[in-house]
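EI: anyone free to look at a 247-residue chain?
SC: sure, send it
EI:
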Amino acid sequence: MSEDAESTTAEFKKLVDQLVQWVNDMVNGFRDFVGKWADSAWRYVLGPAVVAFDRGMKALNEKITKIVQDIQKILDHSTPIVSIIVQGFSWLENAQRPASQLQGVVKEHPDANFGHWEGAARNAYDDAVDLQHGALGAIKTKADNISSWLLDIAKANIMFVKELGDAFAAIVGEFVAILVDAGTIVGALEAIGKTGELVEKLVTTAGERLTKVVEMYSEAVGRTRDATSIQYDAAEFPHDKWPSLAG
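SC: here you go
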């Protein structure tokens, strides 16, 4: 794996880990709140208020559960993104760069007397070398385009996780603080309402942040047709073969 692939993969994994931490903070904060209030003695003396409390707890739990499920789907698809990053840079490292290096020297010859070679054989040789030069240029361009396509898909996914993490970071601290500070049943009921609003704000904010990322991702995936065209374009490879000097 190249250094670029390693650093980009490390960046993506760091963003995923941070996102997981934000989600865990939210879930753990809610669990602590439930543990504090669910079985408290006040439940046996407040009567109808318990119904309102339980209803609010259930609604908040459903919202958090939905968010956790959505984040889990993202995590389930994180491994293929790492593979896309690695392959994107691999096309540069193992195809584009070698082809570029060879194209720069394919017309050179180490024999000092080579320039004195003339005739039909020399002309045939020059024609074949010209074809190889063009074929190497085609490989270089194809590899660069495929790499760009793959890395654009990876970039969209990296931005997706980053924007989602930023949306969590903006509300999780306040979410946990509100639940921790609830010291009375009235405060607990207010906390449920406020945190429910924060979760809804999270969903809205995340949606707004991700709109542009989704457009970026859709554009990158939409270039699949271009990638296929690059694969099938064999103008520099007569009969779909490498232009060999041996004929």
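EI: The chain has a mean pLDDT of 82.
SC: 👍
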